[in-house]
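Collaborator request, handled under Task 6.
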Amino acid sequence: MRTLTVLTLTVLAVAASACATTTHGNAYANEVERLAADCQSRGGILQATGSHTGHAAADNYCKLTDATRIPR
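Structure tokens returned to the collaborator:
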């Protein structure tokens, strides 16, 4: 009986943590989509930096492809 109680609590804890990470993942994906749209509107392509900080703005940058020169 004690093993069943421990097993049940473990399964519930894993299920709760899975739900918590799913919400964060959606927020990150939404932020990446927003950054990509902003970047495309400026004539660029969103590129990954190689970092994995959990912050979309720090993990990606906008590579401008249509830029010919920097305005003064």
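The cover message to the collaborator said: "The longest strand covers residues 44-48. The two ends are 76 Å apart (CA to CA). Please let us know whether this matches your experimental observations."
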